[in-house]
Description:
The protein is of the alpha/beta class. The protein has twelve helices and 14 strands. α2 packs antiparallel against α3, α4 (174-194) packs across α5 and α6 (263-277) runs parallel beside α7. The chain is globular. The model has no long low-confidence stretch (mean pLDDT 95).
Amino acid sequence: MSKITKVIARQVFDSRGNPTIETEVFVKDISASAICPSGASTGTHEAFEKRDVNNKKYLGKSVLKPIEFINKVISTKLKNINIHQQEKIDYLLISLDGTKQKKRIGANAILSVSIAVKKLSSKIKKVPIYKNLLISKNFKLPYPLMNIINGGAHANNGLRIQEFMIRPDKAKTFSEGVRMCFIVINKLRDLIKKLGHSTSVGDEGGFAPMINDNESALKLIVKAINLSGFKNGKDVVICLDVAANELLKNKKYSIHSKKYTSVENSIENYLRLIKKYKIMSIEDPFGENDWSAWTKLLSQTKNKIQIVGDDLFVTNLERLKIGFLNISANSILIKLNQIGTVTETLEVIKFAKLIGYNTIISHRSGDSEDTFIADFAVGTDSNQIKTGSLARSERVSKYNQLLRIEQELGKKSKIHSIH
């Protein structure tokens, strides 16, 4: 018998030291737990994160009310439901909330339950989580999109762009990809030290040197790639997360300097950076509702680089369909807590695959030791994972889990292709 016997939630802390929810689901004496992450740079269309805003003991950041709802209401509602009925459980949670953005219960409460259910189902079936998602049978490892310099909302420096990342395109295995990134990161650390900057890291583990312009960061990265014995744009490529929502005012953008300028000027600057630094992926180049700007950029890059929607799509099927009709992007960032359940996230991934988009599974800047997204990336046949740098254990834990999966797959283990 695999019927849920109880559900227990508790308040724990994320990598930023803020309260978050951990939920443990039980079938008799067997249990599995999941911790919900939290974002800093969030889209307005994301599912709602519920906190106790009036609880001054935790500066309005505690999650004790949603936890109480899980322990008193959700636990009762899920009792005696078969743990393997993920869709039934998720839709019950969605209907219990009854709002479009999960504002009643909170997506943070719902997601911690949803992931714990999937984990426990896998545990009872005695299969790895990635084999219990039933999307792919030929498992491949994703390419790491590794954050190496933090800016924007993730750091206190003057960089406009939020994340400068590298992707080891020449790697033939996941472990080789991680090794390549490791070398570049170490060379970058040496360069930053020589410049007299701090090598302390930002929220996602990338360095956060006091650099004030994007091109200085890009030049440093190119130099680090070259010093590592790799060729920029071929062996290792540079990828950006602009988080342009934070840089938008009166339909103008301050992406490339503090000065606000038109969409057309911003695109010209993007095209110049793409050519000069061989950039192969740009996430959130424009605001979440500026559909026409996205369409113009995709058209002018001739679909040759990855244009990734994060705040644009917020892992939401309705918004993904609008983006597809507007020809706004060719890739989607997948964050489970943007939508709130495993089932809804899988629906978005299936549609993205249907329309030929790359799917990139992503962490949040406030994350935890929970490694679910590592299995999720493999199990959903996603060709990239974005989970920070090779620093801070809440980031490294995901890479370590992928290395375990690679070893488990043995000779069958292959890294994905980027298209």
